[in-house]
Each structure stands twice: as structure tokens, then as C-alpha cells.
Design brief:
The complex is a heterodimer.
Chain A (H helix, E strand, L loop, with lengths): L4 E3 L2 E4 L5 E6 L6 E8 L3 E9 L2 E5 L6 E5 L5 E5 L8 E8 L7 E2 L3 E5 L1
Chain B lengths: L3 E4 L2 E5 L4 E7 L7 E6 L6 E6 L5 E4 L2 E6 L4 E6 L8 E7 L8 E2 L3 E6 L1
The chains are: A mainly beta, B mainly beta.
């Protein structure tokens, strides 16, 4: 089985711009979670989608949003980028109700 | 309540030695405690996991020790090898909730 794929792998944006990141889960996985990873804060949960519905949401401002499509692929969007949004954004997929999450390689976002 | 506290932040161990990473949690509703291993440029990968009804789980050189009354768990890496050099995250989740709470990570370096 192919693993979780994320595109793009690297992205450079400037403050005020918006960005969309994409995640394709493992075939058959219907739950997709997003995390932000920074050196200072570690892995922080952004949100989780299952069957196109957001089931859980972390403590991030409304500039961070996401969605899931009927084929379980997911996108996250960050509007009005700030310097502090520079991070590695990780996507993970799992079977519904399963605790084991499988992570993609991440998208490295740099905001200048 | 939702935090998972991990220590140490960084650890240097001689090849062949034992690496020990500790974690503590507050929420007794957590019922699944995974450890993830992350190499540079990669997403975290599940290493080993335990449920609170057992006190120890061993997989090869990796062992989780779990102390339910103290709300603590630890990862022991026996006969540590340079290839074990990575960042390790402890985590916790509850019920069928796919939201995982991560510790801040331990950067492990094994000296050759």
C-alpha cells in the first residue's frame, strides 16, 4: 500500500498570502488529521476529518481551516500568513476508531 | 489536563547503552499510549504502543514500561545503536478519538 502523500513538500510564501496544502491518505483510511510541528512547540494538533466532517479541532485561530473530500483526500488552508506560521505541517491518516496514525513526510512552509 | 509531559528534551547515549525517555500524563481517560520515532526530513512513525491494562510491552530492543498509579510511562531502548538517533515522541489518546496528544519530543543521539 502506498503511504500518506503530501504536496507540495516545500513552500515559500510571504506574509499576508494564503496557502493550501494537500494530503492523500492511505487507501481505505477515512480519517485524516493535521498537525503543526515547530522546534519550540513540538507536534500540535490542528484538526481531524472523517467522512468529510470535522470531528476534532485544536487550539488554532480561524485562519487555519481544512476540508475533506469524498475520496478522503484532505486540504488545509492558512490565510493571511504570519511569520510564526513557518513550520512543518504533517498529515496523518487512520482507520476510523483506530488509534494508530500513519504520517506523511510533511510540507515545510516558510513564511518570509 | 490534556498535556503529556516528556523528558529529557535531549539525550546522548553511548553505543550499546540503554536510552530511557520518560512521559507523564494527567487525564486518566487516556487509554492508548504510543511512541513515535521521527528521522530528519520524515514524518513520525509509530514505534510501539501500550494500553493501560498492561505494565510492560516489549518489541525487540524497545520496551514501554507503564505505571498507571503514577500516570507515567517510559520508553527503554536496549543496546542503543547509532541508527536509533532520532527524535522520539510519546503520546496519548482516548476512546475512539483520533486526536492524539503528543509530548514535546526527545532528541536522542547515540555516540558510535
Amino acid at each position: 500500500k502506498a503511504g500518506v502523500t503530501q504536496t507540495p513538500r516545500y513552500l515559500i510564501k510571504t506574509r499576508g498570502q494564503q496557502v493550501t496544502l494537500s494530503c492523500s491518505p492511505i487507501s481505505g483510511h477515512r480519517s485524516v488529521s493535521w498537525y503543526q510541528q515547530t522546534p519550540g512547540q513540538g507536534l500540535q494538533f490542528l484538526f481531524e476529518y472523517f467522512s468529510e466532517t470535522q470531528r476534532n479541532k485544536g487550539n488554532f485561530p480561524g485562519r487555519f481551516s481544512g476540508r475533506q473530500f469524498s475520496n478522503s483526500r484532505s486540504e488545509m488552508n492558512v490565510s493571511t500568513l504570519e511569520l510564526g506560521d513557518s513550520a512543518l505541517y504533517l498529515c496523518a491518516s487512520s482507520l476510523k476508531g483506530a488509534h494508530t496514525q500513519y504520517f506523511g513526510p510533511g510540507t515545510r512552509l516558510t513564511v518570509l | 489536563q490534556q498535556q503529556v509531559k516528556q523528558s529529557p528534551q535531549s539525550l546522548i547515549v553511548q553505543k550499546g547503552g540503554i536510552s530511557i525517555i520518560n512521559c507523564a500524563y494527567e487525564n486518566t481517560a487516556f487509554d492508548y499510549f504510543p511512541w513515535y520515532q521521527q528521522f530528519p526530513g520524515k514524518g513520525p512513525a509509530l514505534l510501539i504502543a501500550i494500553r493501560p491494562d498492561v505494565s510492560e510491552k516489549k518489541e525487540g530492543r524497545f520496551t514501554i514500561s507503564f505505571n498507571k498509579s503514577a500516570k507515567q510511562f517510559s520508553l527503554h531502548i536496549m543496546d542503543s545503536q547509532p541508527g536509533d538517533s532520532a527524535t522520539y515522541f510519546c503520546a496519548a489518546s482516548m476512546g475512539g478519538d483520533d486526536k492524539i496528544i503528543f509530548g514535546k519530543g526527545t532528541r536522542l543521539h547515540i555516540l558510535p
